[in-house]
Design a protein that fits this description.
The protein contains 32 helices and 21 strands. By secondary structure, it is of the alpha/beta class. Strands 4-3-5-2-6-7-1-8 form an eight-stranded mixed sheet, sandwiched between helices. It has an eight-stranded mixed sheet with strand order 11-10-9-18-15-12-14-13, with helices on both faces. It binds a DNA duplex through helix 5, helix 9, strand 16, strand 17 and helix 26. It catalyses: Couples ATP hydrolysis with the unwinding of duplex DNA by translocating in the 3'-5' direction; ATP + H2O = ADP + phosphate + H(+).
Length: 748
DNA sequence: AACGCTTTAGTGTAGACAGCATGTC
DNA sequence: CTACACTAAAGCGTT
């Protein structure tokens, strides 16, 4: 088998395995019963180890499947393209299954499926049949199990894989402090190695010099920096120019979007660039400006910087922006990117010199030290294979910091990772899912499951988390997402009678049994936080009540009820945890949003409630065709954030619609509002275009063109076909007509 | 009055997974 | 939101 695999690799240009890869094979990677935890640096060939593992299973039995789990959708797409190119010619079928894209409705016939932890979890929740054919799961960046927001999902997923399915698990990890502990939990062979394809020099940067530091923390080289004149006096200017003049490229990691933009504005490399380079930069500049019809502020700023050979990169940029920047940087046209950690985790963007500018970051009301693991990930980006003799990872220090403290970031042990299973939002969702899948039926199976998690493995004592779970169970029960049998053989969807003090009377806790309700099942499948489910349901009922009340008293006055409901639904999805983080309210905006809330009869308790209103208004303007640049300026948000909000809203409106179907609310206005919203959010267009938007080949722009010409629906198109032709052109008009004929919409 | 330095008050804070069913400019 | 960095404006002294 090994020979067969090596031959395939060779045909794909891999002549020799790298030391860590050999090491893993020697330790028995091809033994399908053996789990592995492999902790080696980025870019040292981790992916290939995963590929070898997958090939090992699939080449032997084409009916088997291997999963490759990655943390980002962008990475999934990247790997998908790569694997497809490499392995499809051998008849191995590669599929991509991520949130917004599915290769096929049915993944039955595929061998390698590239997915995210959340998507796989969702697939399991939907009880896909092919799971039984999976014989190997490779988990990239498995150390993310220690991530507060997403680690819990990964942990539950791995626990399920370990206990319920008979698969080989291969975890690929960055350097962590406690690999042994993680390996023990995984029941995996541990392989740790620090081999890198390009040598990495670590150092501390001052104003005028770099101190390179050896593995023992001693200064091994003092590298003086030439002082280049720079009118804007960026502290990092010398550090940057020094590298660029030597044919290198630089990544500067910042702790905020603002500081990334600022740094990139301060740097001007124009006078160090050739005529050809400047010409190419100008072309890219134009490309950036043409993403929107009217460039937004951030586009202009980015374009301006790019003209000087520098770019910034953060979540405020749209994916198009980011791709342009990444591409130009890889092609060595853009010399410097000032970025937030987006780039440290994301796609492959190596550089010569990686500079870390900040060691602290704002988080939940405090400035906290950035974990060493993350700093090392940033620094690890240095060293482009075949381009750089070595990479340089540099922490920049200013007057307030002292070199000694900084050294600890570069040498010595890294933080250990710890289970974040107890993070309530994630836990809530998974407890519900476990009950839905009948993995947890009663107290005993619940405790058994928890005992097999990393949490239990690390903390031993699970009584603390069981207390949290107890609270979650009561919440799920109270929300009627599960029904409980207290030991008398009867499942109840309601808590037992309360005594005078409001404490429920029930039987022996240990005899409790749990069952999912239809509502709970749907929430689990929709993959929303049960708490969000409760909020959505509660608010839908409230809206229904308002509308009913209005029928009697007319207290909503002149409001168009459909429009009122539409806004209310946007408001209600703004209250869910999936919509976090909410936009910031500036003090000058407070009155505006408060007025808006009062006007719409929505209760305001605190500043948090105003954020819901702001979030809802952003979405409301979006669906009412407010031009993007105007909208962004009005609410002081960035294009990337708007896109993200719209994406979230799309999903949540769908979920709201699904929950509405299950609930026993029958309200024509609400149904209509929900139906309309699905389309309006997707296309960002107002309701009069909906009829047109439902037609294939007609989007926001074409619909608006037609509408303004008086063509408002399907019938109009048929009746005025010549006019449609003149507006949209012959080809498109023909397509549309064909579509209408075939889809049987017209009865003529 | 123009300039430059220091103090102070105000402001804003990283990223990105999940449903479902097909084709925007 | 238990901190912090950054910035614009204000304060103050000098030429």
């Amino acid at each position: 088998m090994l020979q067969k695999i090596l031959k395939i690799l060779e045909e794909n240009g891999i002549k020799e395995l790298r030391p860590p890869q050999k090491k893993v094979l020697e330790k028995g990677l091809l033994d399908k019963k053996k789990n592995f935890l492999i902790s080696i640096p980025t870019a040292s060939g981790k992916t290939l180890i995963g590929e070898i593992t997958l090939l090992n299973h699939i080449l032997e039995d084409r009916n088997k499947k291997g999963l490759f789990i990655v943390p980002l959708k962008a990475l999934a797409s990247e790997k998908y393209e790569e694997f497809k190119k490499k392995y499809e010619k051998y008849g191995i079928k590669v599929a991509l299954s991520i949130g917004d894209y599915d290769e096929e409705e049915n993944l039955e016939g595929y061998n390698i499926i590239i997915t995210t932890a959340e998507k796989l979890d969702s697939l399991i929740r939907h009880k896909v049949k092919w799971i039984k054919d999976v014989s190997v799961v490779v988990i990239d960046e498995i150390h993310l199990i220690g991530d507060v927001e997403r680690g819990g999902t990964l942990e539950v997923l791995i626990t399920k894989l370990k206990s319920k399915y008979n698969v080989q698990i291969v975890g690929l990890s960055a350097t962590i402090g406690n690999p042994e502990e993680l390996a023990r939990w995984l029941e995996a062979e541990l392989v740790v190695d620090d081999w890198r394809p390009v040598k990495l020099k670590k150092g501390v940067g001052y104003k005028d010099k770099i101190l390179f530091i050896g593995e023992d923390g001693e200064v091994v080289e003092e590298y003086p920096l030439k002082i280049y004149n720079n009118s804007r006096r960026s502290e990092l200017f010398n550090l940057v120019v020094d590298c660029v003049l030597d044919g290198g490229s630089v990544l500067i990691f910042c702790n905020s979007k603002k500081s990334a933009v600022n740094e990139s504005r301060k740097l001007d490399l124009k006078k160090y660039l050739s005529r050809e380079e400047l010409k190419e930069l100008k072309r890219i500049k134009e490309e950036i400006l043409s993403i929107f019809d009217k460039p937004t502020e951030i586009c202009k700023t980015l374009a301006e910087c790019v003209g000087r050979g520098v770019a910034f990169h953060h979540a405020g940029l749209t994916y198009e922006h980011r791709r342009i920047v990444e591409g130009a940087f890889r092609r060595r046209i853009i010399k410097v990117i000032c970025c937030t950690p987006t780039l440290s985790m994301g796609v492959n963007v190596p550089c010569r010199r990686a500079i870390v500018k900040d060691l602290k970051r704002y988080w939940k009301g405090k400035t906290v030290p950035i974990p060493k693991m993350e700093i090392l990930q940033c620094i690890g980006r240095a060293g482009r294979p075949n381009l750089d003799p070595y990479g340089e990872g540099i922490i920049y220090v200013n007057e307030r910091m002292n070199v000694k403290d900084v050294k600890d970031y570069l040498v010595g042990p890294v933080e250990s990772i710890y289970s974040k299973l107890s993070y309530p939002r994630i836990l809530r969702s998974h407890i519900l899912s476990l009950i839905a899948l009948e993995d947890v039926k009663d107290r005993e199976s619940l405790e058994n499951f928890i005992r097999s998690t990393l949490y239990a493995h690390q903390y031993g004592n699970i009584s603390k988390i069981l207390e949290d779970i107890e609270e979650i169970i009561r919440f799920l029960e109270f929300s009627r997402f599960i029904s409980v049998d207290y030991g008398d053989g009867r499942y109840r969807v309601k808590m037992l009678t309360l005594d005078g003090n409001g404490i429920s009377i029930r039987g022996d806790k240990d005899k409790e049994k749990y069952k999912i309700t239809p509502l709970g099942r749907r929430i689990s499948e929709l993959y929303i936080d049960p708490l969000s489910g409760k909020v959505i349901i509660g608010e839908l009922k409230k809206l229904n009540k308002k509308l009913r009340m209005n029928e009697k008293t007319g207290y909503l006055g002149n409001w168009d009820l459909l429009d009122y409901s539409t806004f209310y639904i946007l408001y209600l999805i703004s209250k869910t945890s999936e919509m976090l983080p909410l936009p910031w309210i500036r003090s000058c905006e407070e009155n505006f949003f408060f007025y808006e809330a009062v006007r719409r009869d929505i209760d305001i308790d605190d500043i948090e409630s105003l954020k819901y209103i702001k979030n809802a208004m952003i979405l409301y303007d979006w669906i009412n065709e407010v031009p993007e640049d105007e909208l962004l300026e009005k609410y002081n948000i960035e294009p990337g954030i708007l896109r993200y909000k719209v994406e979230q809203a799309k999903w949540l409106v769908y979920a709201t619609g699904e929950l509405y179907k299950i609930l026993n609310i029958k309200n024509r206005v609400i149904s209509q509002a929900l139906e309309g919203l699905k389309i309006r959010i997707e296309y960002g267009a107002s309701k009069e275009l909906i009829d047109l938007l439902k037609i294939k080949h007609i989007g926001r722009t074409r619909a608006r063109k037609l509408y303004n010409a008086g063509i408002k629906n399907i019938q109009d198109i048929v009746d005025n076909y010549q006019k449609v032709r003149s507006i949209l052109g012959d080809k498109i008009a023909k397509k549309i007509l064909q579509e209408l004929m075939s889809s049987d919409v017209i009865t003529e």
